Protein 1
Amino acid sequence: MTTFIVTTGMIILFLLGIPVGYSLGIAGLLAYFNELGSRVNIPMLAQRMQFGVNNFLLLAIPLFILAAKLMNTAGITTRLFNFARLLVGFLPGGLGHANTVASLIFSGMSGAAVADAAGLGQVELKAMRDEGYDDDFCVAITAGSSTIGPIFPPSIPMVIFGLVAEVSVGRLFLGGVIPGLVMAIALMTMVAIYARKKNYPRTPFPGFLKIIKAFFNAFLPMLTPVILLGGIWSGQFTPTESAAVAVAYALVLGVAIFREISMKDLSDILISTAKETAAIGIIVCAANFFGWLLLRTGLTHKVTAGISGLTADPLILLLIINIFLLVVGCFMETVVAILIITPMLMPVVVKLGVDPLHFGLVMVLNLMIGLLTPPFGMVLFVMVGVSGLSFERVVRATTPFIIPLLVVLFLITVFPPLVTWLPNLIMGK
């Protein structure tokens, strides 16, 4: 009965539009009261929820959010896009390629798909519309390329997964480098197909001097991922400390060097970051309590046993999990899905010999694809707000660009070295 209340309660609250954190908390409370009745331990509830955010690693989340907002406000997105446009704009469908390259570079600073779509997306959409690209293509490639953000390091979802699965976040960051590059290549291939089909414009080759000048204009921002990953690889700082370094570096760029951030801007950025951090904190607290309750009810063990009984082949298991996670991604927010589902699936994949690092990248990419799928894909809603198009039109436009992402998902599922080779090379096995 408790399991029924937990699952159906959460689904009903989601469908009613109740915010995710509150939905998890209310469903969990109802089930908890049903199970214990008068024996409910109120202090225990507070302890379980507080325990969810009592982790140094989680400090990386608000810091990466803050760094991304500082980068956006400092005009860095415009510099990055201008460099990407000069670098690849002469290819067929040039601004579509520039869109992807800019997202790949910006992903080394933000760690979040929504930050990419909302910040860099505005610059990309305006430039592409001004050059005569149709709205559907502009929205589709902007939404598709934004999913690179949480795969290419740094990555907020990777931080969450590393916390829950007890996997090195530094190794997870490194594991996302090659898949992130492969995603960019796959999306650029899709752009080339569209460009030939619809005869999209390209810009003349600007010459090496202009490219070099644009490179130097964007050089300091592009150092961000180099500094962060170099510090982590060399052992100079942890992933959480790297997030603090990103904030400090963004502040120096925005305030002292580019002088684009005023005190008023800084105040607005801090308030906005605090609000987003509070929302994520509520979700983490509620999800921790919710997951603990699932463990008490035995649902976690039932799911684990059920999946274990399907197959003993690791590859077949991962393919089955892929299908499951793709469905989950349509309905559940990324952070919630990682917090709730990871403890259920980790014992199964580890038992069958799947590398937790490999599984982490597979899981996160699945959930990033979920950001592009209705009914609750967050990037879709962001693109509606940024583009002014209807939700239905955004969904229709974006759907074909899910195909190259599914191809990349299949590749990293079938060929684990795409994920594990670089971390093993740099940090050892």
Note: The chain has a mean pLDDT of 85.
Protein 2
Amino acid sequence: MKAVTFDGTNVAVSDVDLAEPRHGEVRVQVSAAGVCHSDLHVIRGEWAVPLPLVMGHEGSGIVDAVGEGVTTLSVGDHVVLSWVPNCGKCRYCLLGRPAQCELVASVVAPNGVLYDGTSRLSKDGKPIHHYLGVSSFAEMVVVPESGAIKVRSDAPLDVIALVGCAVATGVGAVRNTAHFVPGSTAAVIGCGGVGLSVIQGARLEKASAILAVDVAADKLELAQKLGATHTLLVTPGMNVPEAMKAIIPEGLDYVFDAIGKIMTTEQSIQALGLGGSAVVVGLPPTGQSAQFDPLVLAEADQRILGCNYGSTVPQRDIPRLVDELMSGDLDLESMISARRPLDEAESALADLNSGAALRQLLLP
């Protein structure tokens, strides 16, 4: 099959071999794959990943083969791919926190393999690693059964690719991580795919005010379309936390950092109102540290919350999000800036890196 590989230096479309699904695995014909900032972290060398690998962790498609022992999926099912193919048996899964699945955290993600410690991907007889158990920049994928979430068959197969990462993370950050209280105020720093999903999540959870913060006027315009009630265009030298407080003088109950730079994380903490929660949604490079004043945090009864995958329970949340798309409560089409063939993956990543694109779909 055709797949987008990365060897530490080059992004290339390559001919890659894909083995048959083993016990508890399914093969999915990929309909669409979303291009995400997490993919940029990989090619920038900001995250340690095993190489070479097939890129991509957001996608959707149709099941076309099932391995032995698969009970929840059948050939022909429409699925959204999840980059947390939770085992369902470890301590965190049993506590209802599959985003922290021990098998994913200790085997799948760091080692670039599936449950049994091996890869289904190879080229010229040499193994190629999976990326986050998905590798969706390809014509097909083999994933654990729990990494393919069955959804309704009338949903548009290309659009629902976004649910697998950006939308699950953004809406989940509001619902699951923050436990958003209706009537609260919110701000979102960064209006890319995840940030726009946070804005939609805050709208769905009935925020009284939603402040969108970004350096790009066109992204703020889209943020208003998707639910933001106020916007802040960041300019050089601006004191962003003070500007945010001036726009929402009653105080910000939740501030979501959807970028993941140290600067924006610190800004999200500094902008909080009394009793507020800063939710770190965007992922920074490995090994960086942010600063905050713990006395201020304690006296103001504030919280800093880490958000991995929107604290999502994939089997519960992903079908719900697809239902909300189909009911018109979620607007995902507006978040898609381009649909491109697989061989334009490198250009799509460059456009994302430059800030010229929102969510782009690769269509194998």
Note: The two ends are 10 Å apart (CA to CA).
Protein 3
Amino acid sequence: MALPALLQDRLTLPMVGAPMFLASRAELVIAQCLAGVVGTFPSLNARTTEELDTWLTRIGAALAAAQAADPGRRIAPYGVNLILHPTNTRVAADLECMARHRVPIVITSVGKPEGVVKAVHSWGGIVFHDVTTMKFARKALECEVDGLVLVCAGAGGHGGTMNPFAYVEEVRAEYAGTVLLAGAMSTGRAVRAALDLGADLAYMGTRFLVAQEANVPPPQQAMMLEATMADIVYTAVFSGIPANYLAPSIAANGVDVAALVKLGSLPGAEAPKDIFKPGQEKPKAWKEVWSAGQGVGSLHDVLPAAEIVARLQAEFLATR
């Protein structure tokens, strides 16, 4: 396994809890790290940079206190997702805040991470970058990132379209460093399969949308427990970038799901007027139209994050 030094001997399961917009908050990150998997959150989940500072202080203090109480305990480091798209006007301020806290892991996405990599390396942190194609993987490697997050078909949020069997093989032909695999994984068996394919870490988000510590409204969690992969719709209409959403949440907002599916998933696709009701504004991605990956069919209960990790560990160890 090509794991960076700061992850070696600190994990109870080779996995990163993926950063989820709105859903990932300090409480979830702390619970994941204490359970021995990397917990992460998007910096924008904190409404301001000042609130981000408060979150980082809370996370750092909680993990340090737990480690001091039990020095031999495997407590995973945490990470912060930094969106590099030009619409994120907080990049510089949030990065400066993260530097003050010496955030151990920074996950970059939707943009070129070159400047961020240099900054994070200056304080001893590492950078993983989200990629959905070989083109983007090569661009990230040019920036000397410490690992690639291969976002494959079926992933929640802005999922890709590549098959993991093919994607990992092509990446491994050119890159021997840390590879994280994302896409429709929600069991310990899937974590084992990710390693067998050639990845070093599984990257799992949807499973933790039904964690008690997640900032997810009960109706969304209930919908996820009832959903199967047939209820996942891949479309660019709501955010401008193709993403996976729960069809029942789309229908609940008065949107014609069948017409939406027929439209396709090209980036920037505009929805024909007959998809929405007359005068209806487009529902907001994540807040009104809920996201999930194709692994929802494996979700059956809402549990504390620690119990979710324990179940994943048992499934992982039972898989040979």
Note: Residues 228-275 form one domain.
Protein 4
Amino acid sequence: MRMAKKMTAFLVALAMTFFCTLPAIADGEEAIYASTDIKITGASALLMEASTGQVLFEKQANEKLPIGTLNKIMTVLLVAEAIDEGKLSLSSQVSASTKASKAKGAVIWLEAGEKMSVEDLLKGVIIGNANDASIALAEAVSGTEEDFVARMNQRAKELGMANTVFKNCTGYDEPEQYSTAYDVALMSRELIKHKNMYGYMTCWMDNLRNGATMLVNANNLVKSYDGIIGVKAGYTEAAKNCISAAAERNGTAYVAVVLGCADKDARFSEAKGLMNVGFANYQVATPPMPEEALKPIKVSGGTKRQIFARAESLSNVVIPKGAADEITGKVILPEEISAPVRENQIIGEVEFYRGDSLLCKTNLLAGETVEEMTFFTAFNILFKNMMDF
């Protein structure tokens, strides 16, 4: 029986190698796609810059749709977080349950009681899209798949995935299980923070059980796209062909999601085209702080006559390439503030614009504490000065 499974795995891998190959990207191909007029045949699509979460292109990005095996992005994310938290390690041995061994669809043929490392199970999920490996990992993290799915939904809420409901960790089609292109981008953006997963997500072919079980990645972009770092491609009858792809070049990463493609190759070309739009047309920039925000601010009735403000935070923004000089800052600060003033007290803000478009804003905080001048504080200051003299 095991020999028949091994032969089946080999034939599947061989067939996918011959029939699922995309040509490598030619030099200068980005210029072809350097337009947001790119045709999207999928039901929904989105392009997001990963570090800022800025959406640069969308088509029905908040439409609730089945996402099929893209569920496994959340499965892998929770396993990666469990590893970071020390609950699991890549070398941890997981014993497959009867439930895992009975999984259907794409599997690595786990048998009940069979032990496999977390690393090999991750390979099975990420590269081989294995449902039995997904269930085994879910049970290793949370005890049962049901409890793991509850955590999937909780984590989705934490990430701001407001239009997502998970019913299983594998992506089996179920009624009332859905997500959106935007939500898929959010969880993909979170997953690519875990760089220890890159080696699995970018692997084209691998094997388990000393070569007995072959794995082939359904994401053809791992073979061809410059800078690819993940994430996952998949298919189910309800979801059709879907992909969430991420790539990084020169420190900037983009996530492209395409859902509901009738054609399996269209998802790859459309995701590739969206990422090309990002790399060819946009850049990440830090807005320059206006000089006006750095000037001293008068303090009335205080033990000091002036203080300086500082920015609470300064977020990066995504702008068209070459447009950094077009960013302007509008400082909103009073000419004078009254004591007492507490360090880190909000005393104003700066708004950053490109033309009439608000890019971002940040609070301006008091750089130090200034006490109110009272008779006793004035006397103490006078006494101290006399003693110093």
Note: The chain is about 30% helix and 25% strand.
